[in-house]
Design goal:
The protein is α/β, with parallel strands linked by helices. It contains five helices and four strands; from the N terminus they run βααβααββα. The protein has a four-stranded parallel sheet.
């Protein structure tokens, strides 16, 4: 069964204070549950992950709580990091982690 892919910012409440907070998929309350159910959500690896204010485990927890099918992490091109941190873990939801800028660029070109 194919799953639809949605961007975190497109399936969130518009009254959130920070777009980056939404895109990093750290908090379930930002999402419109009917819009994410059974879909793959694109989340963004932002500066918060680099400074441990955000984590992949929190993304997995959020995705599970909101009833999404899974998630895809892409890197923010402005971050300058060589690789995504914290990807060696077992998750309870399906995940695709594009763990470097090059992979994320290919993804962004493909979906445009």
């Amino acid at each position: 069964m194919p799953y639809r892919i949605v961007a975190a910012a497109d399936v969130s409440h518009r009254n959130t204070t920070s777009v980056l907070e939404v895109e990093s998929c750290q908090h379930p309350e930002h999402f419109i549950l009917s819009s994410v159910r059974n879909k793959l959500v694109i989340c963004t690896y932002t500066f918060d992950f680099e400074y441990e204010a955000a984590s992949i485990a929190a993304v997995a927890n959020t995705i599970q709580k909101i009833g999404a099918a899974g998630f895809i992490i892409t890197m923010d091109p402005d971050i300058g990091s060589e690789q995504v941190k914290g990807t060696t873990m077992t998750m309870q939801v399906p995940a695709i982690i594009l763990n470097n800028i090059q992979s994320s660029r290919v993804w962004h070109i493909t979906i445009q």
